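Hi R.,

Here are the chain sequences for the assembly we discussed:
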Amino acid sequence: MSTLPSKELDVFPNPKPSRNYTIRIDSPEFTCLCPKTGQPDFATIKLEYIPDASCVELKSWKLYLWSFRETGAFHEAVTNAILDDLVAAINPRYARLEAIFNVRGGVYTTVVAEHGGR
Amino acid sequence: MSTLPSKELDVFPNPKPSRNYTIRIDSPEFTCLCPKTGQPDFATIKLEYIPDASCVELKSWKLYLWSFRETGAFHEAVTNAILDDLVAAINPRYARLEAIFNVRGGVYTTVVAEHGGR
Amino acid sequence: MSTLPSKELDVFPNPKPSRNYTIRIDSPEFTCLCPKTGQPDFATIKLEYIPDASCVELKSWKLYLWSFRETGAFHEAVTNAILDDLVAAINPRYARLEAIFNVRGGVYTTVVAEHGGR
Amino acid sequence: MSTLPSKELDVFPNPKPSRNYTIRIDSPEFTCLCPKTGQPDFATIKLEYIPDASCVELKSWKLYLWSFRETGAFHEAVTNAILDDLVAAINPRYARLEAIFNVRGGVYTTVVAEHGGR
Amino acid sequence: MSTLPSKELDVFPNPKPSRNYTIRIDSPEFTCLCPKTGQPDFATIKLEYIPDASCVELKSWKLYLWSFRETGAFHEAVTNAILDDLVAAINPRYARLEAIFNVRGGVYTTVVAEHGGR
Amino acid sequence: MSTLPSKELDVFPNPKPSRNYTIRIDSPEFTCLCPKTGQPDFATIKLEYIPDASCVELKSWKLYLWSFRETGAFHEAVTNAILDDLVAAINPRYARLEAIFNVRGGVYTTVVAEHGGR
Amino acid sequence: MSTLPSKELDVFPNPKPSRNYTIRIDSPEFTCLCPKTGQPDFATIKLEYIPDASCVELKSWKLYLWSFRETGAFHEAVTNAILDDLVAAINPRYARLEAIFNVRGGVYTTVVAEHGGR
Amino acid sequence: MSTLPSKELDVFPNPKPSRNYTIRIDSPEFTCLCPKTGQPDFATIKLEYIPDASCVELKSWKLYLWSFRETGAFHEAVTNAILDDLVAAINPRYARLEAIFNVRGGVYTTVVAEHGGR
Amino acid sequence: MSTLPSKELDVFPNPKPSRNYTIRIDSPEFTCLCPKTGQPDFATIKLEYIPDASCVELKSWKLYLWSFRETGAFHEAVTNAILDDLVAAINPRYARLEAIFNVRGGVYTTVVAEHGGR
Amino acid sequence: MSTLPSKELDVFPNPKPSRNYTIRIDSPEFTCLCPKTGQPDFATIKLEYIPDASCVELKSWKLYLWSFRETGAFHEAVTNAILDDLVAAINPRYARLEAIFNVRGGVYTTVVAEHGGR
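And here is the predicted structure of the full complex:
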């Protein structure tokens, strides 16, 4: 039944480029597959950024995250890849991507990557 | 990449059938698809039951829930269907299935179904 | 800009009428107006019911609650009216409507009404 | 500066006397004086009742509780007195008054009184 | 320096004997000594009772609990003894004494005793 | 029924201009409309500022926020616009405006804008 | 290094056999081994009982639970076995044993068994 | 009945003036009157300071805060006035006064003022 | 019955003196007496330090804190005295002592003292 | 039954060495033995590090921590030893190891060690 959306991020012009301000978008419904076992992984993805010329459109961000649903992804690599895609799309003055993965084997893993200084 | 497991539930003999006791299994990682929009839905599935001759095997229960990942399912129907599958597999003295769905459109939905009396 | 939806509730056939089961729908975004002062009131509306022949459609319930946005409504009366509208639409075996209003004048008010026995 | 309001409770007709339903009013700002030391006491007053012919008006309940601000009152007596005043004003089918007093001397005291059966 | 108060409980007449109502008194500062090791034990003592002719005076209850400070006391025995002392002093219609002891050896112990029916 | 108040902010003289001090005002009852769908949005608006010559009057701030009730507003734009209006009214030494929007499409969005340095 | 204690439970005479009262003992440090994989499992063991002639000695209960450290044990079986051992040792008027196991494979399991009526 | 204490603060010599250390005193029972409506306001007053030659005596601080019970006071002004009184009494090396007022009109207000650097 | 231990602190050699690392020890069971009234006071004592040549032995720290059980002690003075005793015993590179006293007269007091820089 | 795994840490190449990013791994299931009494100790081990050329493999980290199950270990020493083993295996740009031990004798101990600067 499922046809996954493409990994395209829509953007719109920053309504207040003269000011440094922060946008936080928390998505507790990220899921991908473990590349070793093929079993589902789950995470909360927290994005925080200071826009420059463009902002990321919210629905587009939701669909982008959804597109990983049938993708095999390691924790460390996928966190950096999502941040790279965001930077390619909107080139923010600053961005921080935090991926809080669900417990596996009694172990809780979180990966946090930043782009630019604050 | 994903090949979903079949909807088979493994069982094992109840180690203490002479006693009425309760087993609770909470699974916060249930996901299916909305039949109207095709978009992902997420839920926590809480099962509580008093076994008769058989218990449901934990890993099998996890795989069973995982098998809904690419299935379109309405909240009310899928909750009753999961309970029906459990009853068909182990015929428990009592069972209660609670599905706590993630918020959609500002609305939080939970469905609770029971089988047998307590 | 706002054109409020009509107070119509859509229904669909109960997928499991042979079983008594419970549906809970929590809506933390109810707002109406105070009939005395014209100022906004806010509430969380919690519905819990056992369906008979029909269930209330979720999006329709959201729009129904939204339709009170420009209506003057007393706490006690509006809670009973919402329950009456639900009963008229789906005639459930049991229903419970709880309206948890935001604090006003240092006072927190909640109204709880039931229809049928459990 | 302070002129305390009189201990008068305003009422209004129950909008749904054909149904037994519950009204809860929580007031975390009750204060009176300790009859022994003259020092201030503080409490949260929780009222829950099933109205018969009348309901108590919310602003009037707030002013009524405020009227104790300069009154000396023992914990056990004042809880019963407030419930008696409510019963005299609206004669509810059921009422429950819970007074949760702030800690004094390392001891936390709560008094709960009921009128009628539920 | 310390001179412990005597184990005397002061009482006062119940201001509303015609009504069954409940008084709860929580004391998180109970301490006694372990009879085996002589080391300090700590507990929260929760009393809940329905008074008959008399109520226990709050300061007196605080001093009574304080009087155990240098007493060796087993968990199970001291909980029942405190309840017995309360019953001897005020003969309540109902009483419940809960002693929640601090963790010892990785184990959390609570003892709950009741007098009369509710 | 509703006649929205104008977007006017009342001010009063800072009672202690010789000291840098901070005023925080949290308003959990902000609601506007989504410019795309016309459906209601909800947010908590947190203001924190260091006053210079003037402070914003609390009731006026409440009415100002209420005036957005029938206005279409994007998250990023409306947060910056509210901060701009505050700066125009009282020109504070520092101000921080945080808008925490309710979840939409499984995504939680917050926008934070500052004026001046701290 | 480790020499596990024997599975012996020490008891002492109930200090108040004339009263039905409840003893609760929570032990968050239970660990055994998974019989399939040999990997460690962890659980919180909650015991609640009404003693008859004897009570279980606390340190002995701690050592008893510790004795499972190198034992392979299924969730359902070990919970019933612990309850059986307690009943054999003190024959309580009522007992309830709840084993809350740590998450495994995204699934949280709890087993609850009772002996006698309350 | 009430005779308010005078606004006098008692002090005692700092027992360790050679060290910079911090004293925090939280008082959740502050109440004054609204100068516009005459109705009661409530706040938690949090004081934090580094003493120089003197410390403020705790009971005296409690009575000082109590003395506002029948005083009309604006949020911003009273917070600064309390800090000024403390500075006049003990001239601390640093002080911070935070007044967290109860919600009024759906709005939560907090005022924070500091004296000296840390 | 009680014979208090002496105020002696045992120490052991720092197992990793080449690294600056932090040890935190929280003791929620500190009790002493109020020098004015002779009544018990209670506090949580939180110690945090960076060891130099020696560490404080845990059981010895527990006994040291217990030795205050029958000592009259002012909040501000006893906090500084405990820190001084620790410094005398192990001369740490940094230490922080926080004493969180139980509420008295509606007022919560905490004292925090530091030794050395971090 | 138990055969403990060896203390070997598997590593894999850092997928994004050009960026300083943080990996956090929380393990609430660490257990070792007290070297004095031979009784079990329990801790939550929190690791946070910035990888250089290599990352530690998650399952290997779980097995490494499990290998302490029958080892006698002092709190301060074992925390530093685990950090040393991690540094030897992956030589991270920064690492922080926090061991939060379960309460013993009413005392809660935490040890925190860092390697490199942040």
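The CA atoms of residues 9 and 89 of chain I lie 7 Å apart. Strands of chain I lie at 11-13, 21-33, 40-50, 54-56, 94-101, 108-115.

Let me know if anything looks off.

Best,
T.
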